[in-house]
Write a structure and sequence with these properties.
The chain has 93 residues and is mainly α. It folds into two domains: 47 residues, no CATH class; 31 residues. Helix content is 35%, strand content 9%. The chain is built from two helices and two strands. Strands 1-2 form a two-stranded parallel sheet. The protein is elongated, with a radius of gyration of 17 Å. The relative contact order is 0.12.
Length: 93
């Protein structure tokens, strides 16, 4: 028997997995993510990312804080650890 999917996503990096997550969250089922190795095994897994909440205009600070909150909710609601880490800096001048 052949598998039938409503959506097939090629690539299990940050864009592919986020797309699958939000499709499922919106109620679309039967979504397949095709990846040649394991999820985030390509360039996504080898790059770092950061969200900064300082040294910017007020609207950018709010945007940065909102993204951090989003990542926390994503990790809790997605059931998969994304290794989100909230750190800090100390600058002496």
């Amino acid at each position: 028997m052949k598998n039938r999917y409503r959506v097939v996503i090629i690539g299990g990096g940050v864009i592919g997995t986020a797309t699958a997550f939000y499709l499922a969250k919106s109620g679309i089922r039967n979504v397949a993510v095709l990846e040649k190795d394991y999820l985030s095994s390509g360039s996504t897994g080898r790059c770092g990312g950061g969200v900064k909440q300082q040294w910017a205009e007020r609207k950018k600070v709010r945007l940065g804080k909102g993204r951090g909150d989003h990542f926390k909710r994503f990790e809790r609601g997605g059931g998969v650890g994304i290794e989100y880490f909230q750190g800090g800096d100390f600058l002496s001048g």
